[in-house]
Specification:
The protein is an alpha/beta fold and 568 residues long. It contains 21 helices and 13 strands. The strands form 2 sheets. Strands 1, 2, 3, 4, 5, 6, 7 and 8 form an 8-stranded mixed sheet that branches. A 5-stranded parallel sheet has the order 10-11-12-9-13, covered by helices on one side. It is elongated and about 110 Å long.
């Protein structure tokens, strides 16, 4: 394991045996992170049936790795974390453990109402960020939430803010609270605690001591475990006050040799500690100065693009959840100002369809998909089939190759997602239904001939059809024709139970923009905050395209993420 490899400690406790999914959570996290551990991306250790002594013992055992992330799953209350031996570890007691392990910078307290412990821990320790819950939550959902977070933070290498954003996107629409309300609701939180919170409604909150920690990732969090300049200055200030007080007391004790000698030793010790802290401050400053302009620019770009990826589409996001179905379809409509490609981007990520395991077939808006669909497949799949005279068997061979060699990798197990992105900009929609229906008819025949009908029920990867009807301006007659075609398509074939139609994209309101800025505190470093919401709303009239254009104009660097949507 390299010196810069971050180390995580996971603790799990179920003192009364009622958390049915905690074992699944523990095992699934282990499976999820095994690959990255084997490639020395991170190290981690699990503490099953965690007790106070076992947590302390394991922190001591793995101190050499300088753990920077601590996760707890189990029960909690306003008193503290409930451990497997029936004891409760209070915020103060937990703070004491964390103080003795100062490299810990992030906590994930995946237990009911754990936000009540946040303020004291942040005040008493070097921890900079905590993911905690504001209310009682179901353990099945809690297990899914933690897995989703680590998938984004570790596997997908997202920053802390990005990982939380994706987690929020995955489960924002879920029923996240138990029916019995928390005794202390969000509105009743201390004002200081509320100021640390980055969202207001989702049960899992992200509480931070500073905005810099939001840029932490699995690649750089170990470096953040070193003492920051702010922490160092606080320490210097405290040592200076302690030294001044000890020197005054030493003068007053000149007539008592025994007390005078004790205070003299204390003064010398404080002087030594102060010298070390001042030397460390010089080192930290030099290290910060050494950061190149390119590194700073890269950080700024990452912060900006991370925030943009969470912009708007609240009605549409979270609607399309396949829930294990291997086949699905989605219909999106809107005008150019809706920037449906950004919504498409959101939906791919929120259904865990990532670029590194995605095969996408985009159809040119100017082409006739109905005449060129099979020809395009031949071209993309590099098949030796005559596209000028396609027979029924040719189409079967095309789909068999797609299913067997691309989707299943030749082993009968789906190993990547396949996405058909179809831009339905042609005026003639009459053949859309017949073309897609033909595809699924041959699909069923090929699945049967390949003996994959049973295996298909357990596939986690997906075949997705995105039908995108982006008009220059909203045309009511065109929308009616498109809706009619989609209705007919849903009445038969594979799409009858898995084709979902999203409502047209609304403009953003000034309140939407304000909430978005408030949920992205890392933008402060770029001079972007909620005070700009009114100005941007008035200039853009709430259209996504104009909002992106204005935001792009307010930064002094190129933004590839915006450029991909043809926004100049």
């Amino acid at each position: 394991m390299t010196d810069t490899c971050p180390y995580f400690i996971f603790a799990f406790a179920d003192p009364i045996g009622d958390l049915k999914f905690i074992v699944d959570e523990e095992e699934n996290i282990d499976l999820l992170l095994q690959y990255d551990r084997s490639n020395k991306v991170l190290g981690f250790h699990r503490i099953p049936k965690a007790t106070g002594p076992s947590i302390i013992r394991n922190f001591e055992q793995y101190r050499q790795h300088e753990p920077c992330f601590f996760h707890f799953s189990g029960h909690a209350s306003h008193i503290g974390l409930h451990l497997d031996d029936g004891n409760t570890k209070s915020a103060l007691a937990l703070s004491s453990i964390l103080t003795n392990n100062s490299a810990i910078k992030v906590l994930f307290l995946n237990a009911c109402s754990s936000s009540r412990l946040v303020k004291e821990i942040l005040d008493q320790t070097g921890v900079e960020a905590i993911i905690a819950t504001r209310a009682a939550v179901y353990d099945e959902l809690a297990a899914k939430v933690s897995l989703s977070f680590y998938e984004h933070f570790v596997v997908q290498k997202k920053s802390l803010q990005e990982a939380y954003n994706y987690l929020y996107g995955d489960y924002e629409q879920s029923c996240v609270e138990k029916k019995s309300k928390s005794k202390k609701l969000v509105g009743e939180m201390d004002e200081e605690l509320q100021s640390l919170d980055k969202t207001e409604k989702f049960a899992w909150g992200l509480f931070t001591k500073n905005t810099e920690i939001l840029n932490a990732s699995v690649g750089n969090i170990r470096m953040r475990s070193q003492v920051s300049l702010t922490e160092n200055e606080v320490l210097i200030g405290k040592l200076e006050k302690d030294l001044e007080k000890a020197q005054r007391m030493m003068k007053l004790a000149e007539e008592d040799p025994e007390i005078f000698e004790e205070l003299k030793i204390k003064v010398e010790h404080l002087k030594k500690m102060l010298d070390e802290a001042r030397c460390l401050k010089t080192t930290i400053i030099q290290t910060n100065i050494a950061k190149t302009a390119d590194e700073i620019l890269k950080e700024d770009l990452s912060v900006f693009e991370s925030a943009l990826k969470t912009l708007n589409y609240r009605k549409q996001r979270g609607v399309f959840k396949l829930q294990g179905k291997p086949i699905g379809g989605l219909v999106m409509t809107g005008d150019r100002d809706s920037v449906l490609d950004l919504l498409y981007y959101h939906l791919l990520f929120e259904n865990k369809v990532y670029e590194n395991n995605q095969l996408t077939f985009p159809f040119d808006p100017a082409s006739s998909i109905y005449d060129e669909f099979w020809t395009a497949l031949i071209k993309w799949l590099h098949l030796n089939i005559n596209a000028d005279n396609l027979k029924e068997q040719d189409k079967k061979d095309i789909l068999k190759y797609l299913i067997r060699d691309k989707f299943c990798g030749g082993v009968g197990i789906a190993h990547q997602d396949i996405v058909f992105k179809i831009i339905c900009s042609n005026k003639d929609l009459t053949r859309l239904e017949s073309t897609l229906d033909e595809f699924w008819r041959y699909w069923d025949i090929c699945i049967a001939e390949l003996n994959l009908s049973i295996q298909m029920q357990n596939w986690h990867h997906k075949i997705l059809f995105f039908l995108i009807d982006e008009m220059e301006t909203v045309n009511e007659e065109r929308m009616k024709d498109f809706e009619k075609t989609v209705t007919q398509l849903k009445q038969k074939g594979r799409f009858n139970d898995c084709l979902q139609v999203l409502s047209p994209v609304d403009k953003m309101t000034e309140e939407d923009l304000t909430r978005w800025f408030e949920a992205q505190p890392q933008l402060d470093r770029l001079g972007l905050n909620a005070t700009l919401a009114k100005e941007i709303y008035q200039q853009s009239n709430g259209t996504i395209r104009q909002i992106l254009k204005i935001l792009k104009s307010k930064v002094e660097f190129e933004v590839p993420f915006i450029s991909r949507f043809q926004i100049s």
